[in-house]
Design a protein that fits this description.
By secondary structure, this protein is mainly α. It is about 55% helix and about 10% strand.
Length: about 190
Protein backbone atom coordinates (compact mmCIF):
# COMPACT_ATOMS: atom_id res chain seq x y z
CA UNK A 1 0.00 0.00 0.00
CA UNK A 2 2.00 2.98 -1.26
CA UNK A 3 0.06 5.79 0.48
CA UNK A 4 0.57 4.13 3.89
CA UNK A 5 4.21 3.37 3.11
CA UNK A 6 4.72 7.00 2.10
CA UNK A 7 3.15 8.12 5.38
CA UNK A 8 5.35 5.73 7.34
CA UNK A 9 8.56 7.06 5.78
CA UNK A 10 7.46 10.67 6.13
CA UNK A 11 6.92 10.09 9.84
CA UNK A 12 10.28 8.33 10.13
CA UNK A 13 11.88 11.44 8.65
CA UNK A 14 10.10 13.59 11.20
CA UNK A 15 11.34 11.24 13.92
CA UNK A 16 14.92 11.71 12.80
CA UNK A 17 14.50 15.48 12.79
CA UNK A 18 13.01 15.47 16.28
CA UNK A 19 15.74 13.31 17.78
CA UNK A 20 18.87 14.33 15.86
CA UNK A 21 18.43 18.09 15.37
CA UNK A 22 18.81 18.95 19.09
CA UNK A 23 21.95 16.79 19.22
CA UNK A 24 23.42 18.58 16.19
CA UNK A 25 22.79 21.91 17.89
CA UNK A 26 24.45 20.67 21.07
CA UNK A 27 27.67 19.55 19.35
CA UNK A 28 27.77 22.41 16.83
CA UNK A 29 30.24 20.63 14.55
CA UNK A 30 30.74 22.41 11.23
CA UNK A 31 30.68 20.49 7.99
CA UNK A 32 33.85 19.59 6.04
CA UNK A 33 33.10 21.92 3.11
CA UNK A 34 32.70 24.80 5.59
CA UNK A 35 36.03 24.08 7.31
CA UNK A 36 38.18 23.48 4.27
CA UNK A 37 37.88 25.58 1.10
CA UNK A 38 39.41 22.73 -0.92
CA UNK A 39 36.40 20.53 -0.19
CA UNK A 40 33.49 21.29 -2.46
CA UNK A 41 29.93 20.36 -1.65
CA UNK A 42 28.79 17.83 -4.25
CA UNK A 43 25.23 17.79 -2.98
CA UNK A 44 22.86 20.53 -1.88
CA UNK A 45 24.80 22.13 0.99
CA UNK A 46 23.37 22.11 4.47
CA UNK A 47 24.60 24.48 7.15
CA UNK A 48 23.21 22.62 10.16
CA UNK A 49 25.64 20.73 12.37
CA UNK A 50 27.54 17.78 10.97
CA UNK A 51 27.43 15.50 14.02
CA UNK A 52 25.61 13.18 14.03
CA UNK A 53 24.64 12.64 10.42
CA UNK A 54 20.87 13.00 10.14
CA UNK A 55 20.80 11.29 6.74
CA UNK A 56 22.65 8.33 8.24
CA UNK A 57 20.34 8.24 11.27
CA UNK A 58 17.35 8.23 8.97
CA UNK A 59 18.68 5.56 6.60
CA UNK A 60 19.76 3.29 9.48
CA UNK A 61 16.41 3.65 11.26
CA UNK A 62 14.55 2.93 8.01
CA UNK A 63 16.79 -0.07 7.31
CA UNK A 64 16.13 -1.56 10.75
CA UNK A 65 12.39 -1.14 10.37
CA UNK A 66 12.29 -2.40 6.77
CA UNK A 67 14.49 -5.40 7.59
CA UNK A 68 12.23 -6.30 10.50
CA UNK A 69 9.27 -6.25 8.12
CA UNK A 70 10.94 -8.10 5.22
CA UNK A 71 13.83 -10.05 6.77
CA UNK A 72 14.55 -11.93 3.56
CA UNK A 73 15.95 -8.65 2.15
CA UNK A 74 18.01 -7.75 5.23
CA UNK A 75 21.43 -7.75 3.55
CA UNK A 76 20.38 -5.67 0.54
CA UNK A 77 18.52 -3.16 2.72
CA UNK A 78 21.50 -2.60 5.04
CA UNK A 79 23.98 -2.43 2.15
CA UNK A 80 21.89 0.33 0.57
CA UNK A 81 21.67 2.22 3.86
CA UNK A 82 25.47 2.06 4.21
CA UNK A 83 25.98 3.25 0.61
CA UNK A 84 23.62 6.14 1.20
CA UNK A 85 25.45 7.12 4.39
CA UNK A 86 28.84 6.98 2.67
CA UNK A 87 27.56 9.28 -0.08
CA UNK A 88 27.39 12.02 2.56
CA UNK A 89 31.19 11.84 2.98
CA UNK A 90 31.72 11.87 -0.79
CA UNK A 91 29.35 14.84 -1.02
CA UNK A 92 31.49 16.87 1.41
CA UNK A 93 28.78 16.99 4.07
CA UNK A 94 30.26 14.71 6.75
CA UNK A 95 33.33 13.29 8.39
CA UNK A 96 33.43 9.49 8.84
CA UNK A 97 32.63 9.60 12.56
CA UNK A 98 29.54 11.72 11.84
CA UNK A 99 28.17 8.60 10.15
CA UNK A 100 28.92 6.46 13.19
CA UNK A 101 26.99 8.88 15.39
CA UNK A 102 24.11 8.78 12.93
CA UNK A 103 24.08 4.97 12.84
CA UNK A 104 23.98 4.83 16.63
CA UNK A 105 21.12 7.32 16.81
CA UNK A 106 19.08 5.47 14.18
CA UNK A 107 19.71 2.13 15.85
CA UNK A 108 18.70 3.39 19.28
CA UNK A 109 15.47 4.85 17.96
CA UNK A 110 14.31 1.70 16.21
CA UNK A 111 15.78 -1.15 18.18
CA UNK A 112 14.40 -0.91 21.70
CA UNK A 113 11.16 -2.72 20.87
CA UNK A 114 12.66 -5.46 18.72
CA UNK A 115 13.91 -7.65 21.57
CA UNK A 116 12.82 -8.21 25.14
CA UNK A 117 15.16 -7.02 27.85
CA UNK A 118 16.63 -3.89 29.32
CA UNK A 119 18.04 -1.14 27.11
CA UNK A 120 19.86 1.95 28.36
CA UNK A 121 20.24 5.00 26.13
CA UNK A 122 22.56 7.78 27.27
CA UNK A 123 22.86 11.46 26.32
CA UNK A 124 19.08 11.71 26.05
CA UNK A 125 17.88 15.32 25.65
CA UNK A 126 15.34 16.70 28.11
CA UNK A 127 12.58 17.36 25.58
CA UNK A 128 8.85 16.72 25.55
CA UNK A 129 9.07 14.08 22.79
CA UNK A 130 11.20 11.89 25.09
CA UNK A 131 8.61 12.08 27.89
CA UNK A 132 5.75 11.31 25.51
CA UNK A 133 7.66 8.41 23.95
CA UNK A 134 8.38 7.06 27.44
CA UNK A 135 4.66 7.12 28.25
CA UNK A 136 3.82 5.46 24.93
CA UNK A 137 6.30 2.67 25.70
CA UNK A 138 4.80 2.28 29.19
CA UNK A 139 1.34 1.86 27.65
CA UNK A 140 2.75 -0.85 25.39
CA UNK A 141 3.86 -2.70 28.53
CA UNK A 142 7.47 -1.53 28.92
CA UNK A 143 8.99 -0.25 32.13
CA UNK A 144 10.65 3.11 31.49
CA UNK A 145 12.91 5.18 33.74
CA UNK A 146 13.97 8.60 32.45
CA UNK A 147 16.68 10.18 34.61
CA UNK A 148 16.86 13.80 33.43
CA UNK A 149 19.82 14.60 35.71
CA UNK A 150 21.93 11.79 34.21
CA UNK A 151 20.55 12.31 30.67
CA UNK A 152 19.66 8.65 30.30
CA UNK A 153 16.63 6.50 29.77
CA UNK A 154 16.24 2.83 30.68
CA UNK A 155 13.63 0.79 28.83
CA UNK A 156 12.77 -2.72 29.98
CA UNK A 157 10.83 -4.47 27.21
CA UNK A 158 8.75 -7.51 28.30
CA UNK A 159 8.47 -10.72 26.27
CA UNK A 160 4.93 -9.79 25.28
CA UNK A 161 4.02 -6.21 24.39
CA UNK A 162 0.84 -4.47 23.36
CA UNK A 163 0.28 -3.41 19.74
CA UNK A 164 -1.87 -0.30 20.20
CA UNK A 165 -0.01 3.02 19.99
CA UNK A 166 -2.54 5.31 21.71
CA UNK A 167 -3.57 8.13 19.43
CA UNK A 168 -3.76 10.63 22.30
CA UNK A 169 0.04 10.27 22.59
CA UNK A 170 0.93 9.65 18.95
CA UNK A 171 -0.72 12.90 17.82
CA UNK A 172 1.43 14.93 20.27
CA UNK A 173 4.80 13.96 18.86
CA UNK A 174 6.68 13.11 15.72
CA UNK A 175 8.97 10.36 17.08
CA UNK A 176 6.14 7.96 17.92
CA UNK A 177 6.23 6.53 14.40
CA UNK A 178 9.47 4.72 15.22
CA UNK A 179 7.49 2.11 17.19
CA UNK A 180 5.33 0.95 14.25
CA UNK A 181 7.90 -1.17 12.38
CA UNK A 182 9.05 -3.00 15.49
CA UNK A 183 5.43 -3.51 16.62
CA UNK A 184 4.53 -5.03 13.26
CA UNK A 185 7.62 -7.23 13.45
CA UNK A 186 7.01 -8.38 17.04
CA UNK A 187 3.20 -8.49 17.15
CA UNK A 188 2.22 -8.90 13.52
CA UNK A 189 0.11 -5.76 13.77
CA UNK A 190 0.11 -2.17 15.00
CA UNK A 191 -2.81 0.13 15.71
Amino acid sequence: NLPLTTQLFARLGETEDAVVDPVKAHFGRTRPFMNNPEIKANVKPSKSGAYPSGHTSRSKMMAIILASMVPEHHDVIFARADDYAFSRIVGGMHYPNDLEGGKLAGTAMAATLLAPGKNTITNVPDILDVEIMAELLRRLGCQVLHDVNKSLIEIDVPKTIGHKADYDLVRKMRASISVLGPLISRCGQAD
